């Protein structure tokens, strides 16, 4: 019997002035960025939490606590590399990733393919196994009023023989 595991991840960060906006490892030119201990890449954080959940590794707060100065300003793609190494060590392979960015602005459509390529490269899978999409919330809630961004991710892992 094939050992498959599904994981779901969710992350949220406040938007603020004076920070870069990094999503899926892509720096998006914009006047606001996400507030966080690392680069605050909300999309990559949701993917990492989904992977951690599927492989029963806890969550990114456990693996990379914001109280640890080693992670201050670190690229979330580097943190994803570390999660990918833990997956490999545990005998897991990524089957697919489906992620949704929730933000009123900016529009990220032109950068989606680069985000997918970044995530796929770090995870060691083909780009057709990673899907990134974005939606607004029609000006409702903290994402709709522009005070923050959120992301959800769902992943499927398979235990390697």
Automatic annotation (TrEMBL):
Its EC number is 4.6.1.12. SUPFAM superfamilies: IpsF-like. Pfam families: YgbB. Residues 4-157 form the 2-C-methyl-D-erythritol 2,4-cyclodiphosphate synthase domain. It is an enzyme of class 4 (lyase). Its cofactor is a divalent metal cation. Binds 1 divalent metal cation per subunit. CDD domains: MECDP_synthase (cd00554). InterPro entries: MECDP_synthase (IPR003526), MECDP_synthase_CS (IPR020555), MECDP_synthase_sf (IPR036571). 4-CDP-2-C-methyl-D-erythritol 2-phosphate binds at residues 11-13, 37-38, 59-61, 64-68, 135-138, 142. GO terms for molecular function: 2-C-methyl-D-erythritol 2,4-cyclodiphosphate synthase activity. It catalyses: 4-CDP-2-C-methyl-D-erythritol 2-phosphate = 2-C-methyl-D-erythritol 2,4-cyclic diphosphate + CMP. Keywords: Isoprene biosynthesis, Lyase, Metal-binding. It comes from the Bacteria. Pathway: Isoprenoid biosynthesis; isopentenyl diphosphate biosynthesis via DXP pathway; isopentenyl diphosphate from 1-deoxy-D-xylulose 5-phosphate: step 4/6. The record marks 37, 136 as: Transition state stabilizer. A divalent metal cation binds at residues 11, 13, 45. Homotrimer. Belongs to the IspF family. Involved in the biosynthesis of isopentenyl diphosphate (IPP) and dimethylallyl diphosphate (DMAPP), two major building blocks of isoprenoid compounds. Catalyzes the conversion of 4-diphosphocytidyl-2-C-methyl-D-erythritol 2-phosphate (CDP-ME2P) to 2-C-methyl-D-erythritol 2,4-cyclodiphosphate (ME-CPP) with a corresponding release of cytidine 5-monophosphate (CMP). This is 2-C-methyl-D-erythritol 2,4-cyclodiphosphate synthase.
